[in-house]
Design a protein that fits this description.
The complex is a heterodimer of chains A (392) and B (97).
Chain A: H1 17-22, H2 24-27, H3 33-42, E1 44-48, H4 54-64, E2 68-72, H5 97-108, E3 113-117, H6 126-130, E4 135-138, H7 143-156, E5 160-166, E6 169-175, H8 183-186, H9 199-202, H10 207-225, E7 234-239, E8 244-249, H11 271-274, H12 283-286, E9 291-292, H13 294-302, E10 308-311, H14 315-320, E11 326-327, H15 333-336, E12 346-349, H16 354-365, E13 371-374, H17 377-384
Parallel strand pairs in A: 1-2, 1-4, 2-3, 4-5, 9-13, 10-11, 10-12, 12-13
Antiparallel strand pairs in A: 5-6, 6-7, 7-8
Helix pairs in contact in A: 4-5, 4-10
Chain B: E1 2-6, E2 20-24, H1 28-38, H2 43-46, E3 57-61, E4 64-65, E5 81-86
Parallel strand pairs in B: 1-5
Antiparallel strand pairs in B: 1-2, 3-4, 3-5
């Protein structure tokens, strides 16, 4: 497929003596050269998310001399990010990710412009934010934002360099390229909440976002240079455990609601609602589920009440910390329900209270009546009852 | 036809952690049927209540999306690989649960 290059500003830029030294390993390659390096300097790339994927992405794009880099993230650096978000140091914990990333990337390359955006990407601000950039790189962690980034890119005709990860598996491709498919060609609809495990249940090996984010950085730079074959119309699947890359064909779907022949989505919509996050699909799950606070549970245990504790987390989570409950992971509950005694009063818990609510919803349908959900899960237990229980 | 069905990480909790399953099937639909009858809990993750493949689950025969072939009726041949490609959203993996 003949790939048009990304339209960059024609602004007249030059490299300083210092920059020529800095980029000399690019300049001596014919595929980059002075022309390519000036393209990089003129280019404007917006990174959505400064997390695991954003870390290698930001570092490599800044190091490569992308002249204008936008970093959008509303979150704050947490201790648990440091295992994979290598832009940040321990001293950054508690700081805004967008600011900490800007400081790190500026230190790496003071000759580029970095704009940080401490904001959540929304349907109200996306088009305005994207319009000044040539390429958008999606390193977010949730479905509503992924659909939002896709739709905004398609509406503005901007390429969307996509990467996502789960445990040991990654996916990468370039969506929204002229003539190429978009995210909705592959996934017309989001999965309903609950049918796909979240990251907290999943976890991720720290190196994985390093690899997938580096692939996104490489594709971004190739698009700017107009070099090689971009990852358009191909979905790269990476399995780190097997250490295997596979490639699947992605086709533009003529019936795609955004980029198809007769688009039905012509402006940005409410993506939270679209993904069922605000919709009624999730709300009934919390209705009618009786809750008990950690303090109430502790008081009742101290009183000697006969309470059965059911832990619906995974085995490896139980090994980190537990409340001496019986462990049946949520996914195994349907076939192991016979191990439970419905005549006993039962407190169900997980890490934060969501999986246990799902478990109670299931157990209620199976006829259990004496059920309590531990409000806030083992995290709240650590905060309110026993701080020696580690939070993870 | 002996085909291999690749199970993605998020769904391996329903297949006893198996990453791939070999079975005999003449069509993609038959192979998926075999898979969900062996691993019952997988059914609701792949199919709607009325038995249609869920729209957020993509199924590939080798490197081709079955939506652009004959969907579930796509014929298989010996040695084919069927891949289930789910939507995954993770990027920075903010904990939620």
């Amino acid at each position: 497929m003949a790939i048009p290059t990304v339209a960059l500003s024609q602004q007249d830029v030059k490299l300083s003596r210092e920059e020529i030294q800095r980029y000399s390993r690019h300049l001596i390659m014919p595929e980059v050269g002075m022309e390519g390096q000036l393209k990089l300097k003129r280019s404007r790339v917006l990174m959505i998310g400064a997390g695991g994927l954003g870390a290698p992405l930001g570092l490599y794009l800044a190091a490569a001399g992308v002249g204008h880099l936008g970093v959008l993230d509303f979150d704050v650096v947490d201790n648990s990010n440091l295992q994979r978000q290598v832009t940040f140091t321990t001293a950054d914990v508690g700081k805004l990710k967008s600011e900490a990333a800007k400081a790190r990337l500026s230190a790496l390359n003071p000759s580029i412009e970095i704009q940080s955006y401490e904001t959540r990407l929304t349907s109200e601000n996306a088009l305005e934010l994207f319009k000044d950039y040539d390429i958008i790189v999606d390193g977010t962690d949730n479905f509503p934002t992924r659909f939002l980034v896709n739709d905004a890119c398609v509406l503005l005709g901007k390429p969307n360099v996509y990467g996502s990860i789960f445990r040991f598996e990654g996916q990468a491709t370039v969506f929204g390229y002229p003539g190429g498919p978009c995210y909705r060609c592959l996934y017309p609809e989001p999965p309903p909440p609950g049918l796909v495990p979240s990251c907290a249940e999943g976890g991720v090996l720290g190196v994985l976002p390093g690899i997938v984010g580096s692939i996104q950085a490489m594709e971004t730079i190739k698009l700017i240079l107009g070099a090689g074959d971009p990852l358009v119309g191909r979905l790269l699947l990476f399995d780190a455990l097997a250490m295997r890359f596979r490639e699947l064909k992605l086709r533009k779907n003529p019936e795609c609601p955004v980029c198809g022949n007769h688009p039905t989505v012509t402006k940005l919509i409410d993506y939270e609602e679209f993904c069922g996050i605000r919709g009624e699909e999730t709300l009934p799950m919390t209705d009618g589920i009786p809750e008990i606070t950690p303090k109430e549970m502790k008081a009742r245990q101290d009183r000697g009440d006969d309470l059965f504790i059911l832990d619906v987390r995974e085995v490896h989570e139980y090994q980190i910390c537990n409340l001496n409950g019986k462990l049946i992971p949520l996914g195994e509950l349907p076939r192991r329900v016979s191990e439970l005694d419905s005549s006993k009063e039962m407190i169900v818990h997980c890490r934060s209270g969501k999986r246990s609510a799902d478990a109670i919803f299931f157990l209620q349908k199976a006829g259990f009546k004496k059920l309590w959900n531990l409000k806030g899960g083992i995290l709240a237990w650590s905060d309110e009852v026993d701080p020696t229980v580690p939070k993870y | 036809m002996v085909v291999k069905v690749m199970v993605p990480t998020p769904l391996r909790q329903f297949t006893g952690k198996q990453a791939s399953i070999e079975c005999t099937a003449a069509t993609v639909g038959e192979a998926l049927g075999h898979l969900t009858s062996t691993f019952g809990e997988l059914r609701k993750h792949l199919f709607t209540d009325d038995g249609r493949l869920r729209s957020f689950v993509n199924v590939y025969l080798n490197d081709e999306d079955i939506r652009f072939l004959q969907k579930e009726n796509t014929q298989t041949k010996d040695g084919d690989t069927i891949s289930i490609v789910p939507s995954i959203a993770g990027g920075s993996c903010r904990e939620r649960n």
